[in-house]
Amino acid sequence: MTQRSLWLRAGWFAVAMVLLTVLGAWLLFGRGRSPIQTDLLAMLPATERNPLAEVAAQRLAHANGDRVILLVANKDDDRAQAAARALGQALGKDPIFASVTAELPPFDLQQLVTPYLAHRFSLLGDADRTALAQPGYDAAKALAQRVNEPFVTGVGTRLQDDPFGWLQHWLEQQPWSRSPLLPEDNLLTAHRDDTSYVLVTATLAGSSYDDVIQQRALHALDQTEHTVEQAQPGTQILRTGALFYAAAARAGAERDVHRVGFISTLGIALLLLGVFRSPGPLLLAFLSTAIGVIAATTVSVLIFGQIYLLTVVFGAALLGEAVDYSIQYLAARANAGSAWEPRQGLRQVRAALLLALGTSLLGYALLGLVPFPALRQMACFAMTGMAVACLSVFALLPACLLRPAKPLSNASVRIALAIQQVVARLASGRRSMVLAVMALLLAVPGWWQLRHDDDVHLLIAPPTALLQQEAQIREITGLGNGTQFYLVQGADAEQVLQREEALELRLQQMVDGDQLQGWLGLAGMMPSQQRQRANHALLAPLFAQPQRMRQWLQAAGFRDADIDAFIQAWPGTPLQLQSWLNSAPATPFRYLWLGDEVHDGAASLVLPQGDASSASLQQAAAGLPGVTLVDKPAGISALFGRYRSYASGWLLAAILLIVPVFAWRYGLRDVPRVLAPPVLGIAFTLAVLGYVHQPLTLFHWMALMLVLGVGANYAVFLREGEPHVTHRPGAMYASVLLSAITAVLSFGLLAWSSMPALRDFGFTLLWGIGFTALLVPASTHARNT
């Protein structure tokens, strides 16, 4: 291969990388929206066998995804109301909000009653239905109780329209009647202890996960809240919504990227300068790594259409592994001295780089088998980045490194040689067996203390302040938990409502037993036709003799005109689902009906409210046809647990796949020695995890898979390179240590990530790579002796 061909190959590679960079820049910045996905739900796998359940979970999760909920608190009722009005008016003027609701338009509470008057004889509350079903129902007594009831301040029927209170009692079971928030001076207000809370809601003019929307909305909220709190002393504004969680996740990821990227870049730069004693190798190493990261980002966005926060932070850490390939070529150049020749250098490192790349790709490919979108994208990112970074060494670096370089610094070689000799001595003879037994005895207590935790909530760590505010808002306003719900399916709407009613009987038993706070479902607001017919039949005997009904009402003091109107209203008409869905009272609850999502049949959602266990909620649905409890967090946690339990098998499979490759290269007898450093590194890392009481998750096992791949790389680098540096003992191990330290600087820094999943990943790699790098000299001892 001539020098001209080296330049030609480098030129073609450079052109391809420029085109790829332009494409990546357009994908990231040229389409008017950022492809960085801050929706944490998007990173999670599908867990439900029923596709409709998965659709329902996504629909419910995003039903209020673009809505911001603010609760204005003040011990002074007037100040709380004034602050809420000012907040609503200020936010309403900002175009970033599509709508803001603080002060309600004046309306008559009768508007909530009127749609039901024509259907009043088909709607009965639970207590009335039970009483009417008993023999000897005393209509006169029920009438007297209704007449003497105290004045209703909330949603109430007029006495002449509902003299027995049947419709009133049914309305009192409706969600708007049970809400702690009541209209006061056209503001939805709740009172708790000595504090008044006023609700303000806003809908964004875009997605909560759009970074531009996030920034503008947060700026507007922060500025307005500060102004309101100053104008109304003692005011506190609680906030919740997907906007705040998405922004917090993005901010945490940006901090991680900056910290990991800056510290690892600076550390790697100082190391390369110290070891190679020239800025040229430093620039080329970073160029090779940057090419890999750019290619990985572009390919990931092309394949997935977006890039997850986990991948963004992981990409910053990839620097430490992608730089290994260029380090080995640069080390070969430094060790060759004046005899350096680029093509000969390529031939020298080719086998080591390809073997190392193969083991790394194997580890990441196994990572990509997990049905977890974020892990698959991380695997794709890493495999692309590794492959292109390695390719850059073959295509680009030879043309840029035609002249010899300074040898590796004497200090780095001396330190490496000292460590190598110590490990080699300890790994030889009887002392190696003694040390192995001692290490085993030290590791066993750590292994014994290992446990696991598959809770999906360990994947992310939202700010405590946001969680506390959300919990406080839920407790004050009575909002339910949207992560668990029942999917009720049937052949048609009538069957769905009947099945809901069967479920609600069991849920009511849980409420009566203080196991559940309540529930939200359509059947309570829109009874099935079967239930309505049964209600109607219970009232029919009372209207069978109109004259007797007239006597009861006259005795209670009702006017003849009102009596005539009430009797003539019988039998009324049943309430129909479609007309109810189109009515004003149904507006906040339409998302519970999945009519537009079901092609064959019908379906609805029922939301349990409170902190009931998943097991008790599952029991409530047991044996009910068409009723399924969908618990997304529990489902994902179970999936994590299932794949975590498989992980040790995957790790063993990866080791077995590497064995024939190493046997082909080094001979079967040497395979145990070559594989010993990464395998022992994994074993000792597990012991450390046990000692520090860190529960094992899927991410720990995925990191251990990479420890195997990276550790095997170091063994390959050392065995392949040592025959070429016999004139300078320790030089090859110095380059291996340099690779290990750069990996620790990058991946190890993830141990301080704000994301628990990456924190587990980084902590495991920190120890695994550290142990493996120190044990690698033992892999060549047999050959050296």
Give a written overview of the molecule:
- By secondary structure, the protein is α+β, with helices and mostly antiparallel strands.
- The protein folds into 3 domains: 3-31 and 247-448 and 667-784, Multidrug efflux transporter AcrB transmembrane fold (Up-down Bundle), CATH 1.20.1640; 66-106 and 186-240, Ribosomal protein S10 (Alpha-Beta Plaits); 115-137 and 145-153 and 468-631, no CATH class.
- The chain is built from 31 helices and 12 strands.
- Strands 2, 3, 4, 5, 6 and 7 form a 6-stranded antiparallel sheet that branches. Strands 10-11-9-12 form a 4-stranded antiparallel sheet.
- The chain starts with a helix and ends with a helix.
- The relative contact order is 0.13.
- The model has no long low-confidence stretch (mean pLDDT 84).
- It comes from Dyella acidiphila.
- It is found in: Cell membrane.
- This is MMPL family transporter.
